[in-house]
Amino acid sequence: MRTERSERRPARRHLLGCGETDRFAGQQGDHLLVTASNEATEPCWVTSYPAVKLGDDIDGAALPHSNKDKPGGDQHITLQPGAKVYSAVNLFAYGSQNHTAQSFAIALRGGDGRNGPLYSVDLKGEKPQFSWKEADVLNWSTEKPYDF
Fold this sequence. Notes:
Elements: E1 9-10, E2 16-23, E3 30-38, E4 44-47, E5 51-54, E6 76-79, E7 84-92, E8 99-101, E9 104-107, E10 119-120, E11 130-132, E12 134-137
Parallel strand pairs: 1-4
Antiparallel strand pairs: 2-3, 3-7, 4-6, 5-9, 7-12, 8-11, 9-10
């Protein structure tokens, strides 16, 4: 049964579970898969792409949206209870003066484009660490990006 838009609610962090998986670690062009799931008992929605801040600098600017992403980030994606959506952080490390971190935080964006509060994401793996010189983020999608 499809819920009318007026009955759906934007996702809230306490209703959304988030996780991360590192792909192609240690190579130029790492990707962090960001997975969000609706842990509530009612449908909710996400839109655009998550605001992502790498490392401990939560006062810094959020990563930009990837200019190579598919169109459609302005659409709401409805998540039924238990449903998942995916985004990816593209990490480009080359040359010297790369940044290295073991954590990152995300915020959901509202329909008005403003960021909600930041929340740290659980990192998986033996040595959860990543490096980058440049980075950007993909829109939320119901399909996993790349070859995850």
